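Sequence dictates fold. Below is an illustrative record:

_____
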Amino acid sequence: MDLLNELLQNPEEWYRQHQFLAWAIGFIFSGCGLAIIAALFKKGKGTAHQTTSGDNSPNFRNIQGNIHAAQTRGDHSPNFHKVREVHIGGVPPHIVDRLVQELDDKLKAKNIALAEHDKIIEDWVKKYEELEERLAQRSETEELIKQAKEELTNGNLDEAEKLLLQSFQANLEYVKKAAADAYELGTIQKLKIEYQGARKYYEQAAHFDPDNSLYLNEYGFILHTLGQHKQAIDYFEQALDSDLKTYGHQHPKVATYWNNLGEVWRALGEYQKAIEYYEKALVSDLQTYGDQHPNVATYWNNLGEAWRALGDYQKAIEYYEQALASDLKTYGDQHPSVSRDWNNLGLAWYSLGEYQKAIEYYEKALVSDLQTYGDQHPNVAIYWNNLGLAWYSLGEYRKAIEYYEKALASDLKTYGDQHPQIAIYWNNLGEVWRALGDYRKAIEYYEKALDSDLRTYGDQHPNVARDWNNLGLAWYSLGEYQKAIEYYEKALASDLKTYGNQHPSIATRWNNLGLAWYSLGDYGKAIEYFEKAYGVFKKVLGDDHPHTKLVKDNLDSVQK
């Protein structure tokens, strides 16, 4: 299943951009103002940690399949349109209310988390206003566009789309007009939450007018949304080159494209490359806005995420603290951006093994969002989950279960039992029961998570690979090494299709296969897998990363 369905059914997956490490902040749309879309798409609803576990052998260690420690960027109450007025240009208020209600119903029907609705709707409103403005500019000279604008103002997206399609077909010989029509049609599809349709029209817009940075950027963004990251890079680079020629290096649009490129490279696991682009964006917007602007806090947060992915947790903390200081001045201490920053600091201190310190930050985030949302909100469930992870790491397994079960109970009420977030908690409960030595109970929870994720994503998705890996770990712990290998190989095959062979998740699978073959007495095969894993971790994460050191220890032990 492609990443469109991941987006529609589990925005946290885009928010963190796949497994292994977390993502926090997403794209800033060109042409949409400061629309920070991380809430819907990468990075920070559900952060997946790959942590190490030494519970399988005195000398060898598996790498666990992602206990989820999630982070959020939601900042509204579940009934957004009832608690805050929404205005769209010249669209009458009663029509806006109907449109937002329809959008809200559609988001709920697609299992998009309540915590994400605000940012989704904010972006949706901006795109609606942008489309209305573009049509208004063209309506004086083009009758079909004038009619489409009237339909849009009346909230009739389908009718506006039909008229735009007529205009597009009539303008095929006039490439600039055809490109504009295609872009407008893409925006209509986006407003209808039909991202494959948006992709088709944005591609046509970029084809007809290949020097238009707006079209190039939108097409790149939708490609990234659909998981086609390398293609997205090509179009973001074209948009960047165009606007560098137009504006030079010190312009917000140019900073936007640098940030977007950083996001895509981070999604591909190229963290150093991501850092280069984030730093360019940061330098540009520091000169434009100074250090007390939300864009700047966004880039600091993104840099923190990238350095955390590289295992430099102290550097990550430095950036997170700068983001926190800025957001505190901008928003005060009762704002979701601030609770996100506290949570990110908790994640970084957790990675340093400072679990008590992590708990302090998680509790701050929890208290803030409890006051903002109450105790039946996905953000709150996420912080309970993170606290569970921290107590798990302190060996307080019963306390961990208590927090995981709170998170599970809350989100069961929010989503029901067929939602990806529920699979996260089942996975985590499986982890803690495995730590308690109840491997059969762990398998029960892992199988629940697997069944749910297979229904949600199909068999070619990182969450499913994680579930297979965890089942392998549990069967390994029961001494069923051949069964463990079967699950590890399923996880490996899935992740190879998703990431290629130079990604940390692949190295994780190879390490675990090496350990299983070692346990079966096939040392040659074990060495082969450990060497593969070590090569990838060393290349991607460097010699000093904990995972690189772990696999090197495994390799050295088997070679003695």
In short: The beta strands are 48-49, 52-53, 62-63, 67-68.
